[in-house]
Structures are given as structure tokens and as C-alpha cells.
Amino acid sequence: MARMGIGAAWVAVLLSATGWAAGAGGLAVVDMARLIESHPDTPAAEDLLRKQIEEFELEQKELAERGNAMRDAYRAAREAARDEALSEAGRAERAEAAVAKGRELQAFEEQYVETVRLRQDQLRDQERRMRLRIVGKLVARIEAYAREAGLSLVLDSAGEGISGAGTVIYADGALDITDAIEALIREDAED
Length: 191
Prior knowledge:
Helices cover 72% and strands 4% of the residues. With 191 residues, it is mostly helical. Strands 1-2 form a two-stranded parallel sheet.
């Protein structure tokens, strides 16, 4: 806790020493979450991800149905191995068949778990890559705006700090450039 207080004091000293005090014009904030949400590429990225999720859910359902059928076949084979009407040799033969079906089922279930894990990882990775592509475009636009406006520092007002509070606790509305960046992104999309 004391460490965070010292860090905040250090930042305040740096800001005042370099002329970045409130109203100096070299500092701005932007709501990255809002910019990501309103970016023209976001709906297409979300649609693609939604389609991939639907495909995954269909694949998962088909695999689950296959697993249920294998489970039913295994149970039936076990029951058949207990049939008293069969000879000892007949029951032993069916017991071997049941064991084989049990191994197939176990292998399938292991493969099912691995497939689901792999697909979930792929979906998370796809979502991360799509978000990074959009964020990359936003950061480039914000950097260009900051250079043109003579800004020295732009902070993300939507970010969350280690304490769970925002990384920007307070910023005067005059420092917020989110609307300006949104307008530029809309212009860029129209071009």
C-alpha cells in the first residue's frame, strides 16, 4: 500500500516537473473500451467469432452424440456378457468385446476432452488476435492525433489497475479525446 502511495507521489512529481500539470495541454485520456466497441471492424469480428462459436457448438454436440452412442454400445456389450443363456466361452467372448468397447469409449472421451480444449483455445486466440488488430489500428490513430495535437501522454481511462479501480481515477472532461478519435475513425472508415 505504501509502495503505491510512493509511486503516485513520484508520478505527481514527474508530471509537475515536466510541465504536465492539469491544464498544461500535454496530457489526454481516451476510453479504449468505448473505441473498440464503436470501431467499424468490431461488428464483423464479432460476427465471425459468433459463427466460429456456433460451428464449435455443433461439432461439440455431434461429438457428444457419438460419445453417447458409444457409451450405450458399451453398456449393451457389458449386459450381453452377463447373459446366463450363453455358454461360459460365449460370455467370455462377449466380455472381451465389452472390454474392447470400453477402451474405445475411453479413448474417444480423452479425444473429446482434448478436442474441446483445443477448440476453446483456438476461439480465445482468434478473439485475442481480432481485438489486437483493432487495438493496433486505434493506437496508430491515437498516436497520430497525439502528435498532431502536441500531446505528450495519452492514458486509457477504461483500463483497470491492480487495485481494481481504474488506472485513471479522475480526469477533467476537457482531457478526454475519445469523441475526437471516434470522429476520426468514422472519417477513416468512410474513405
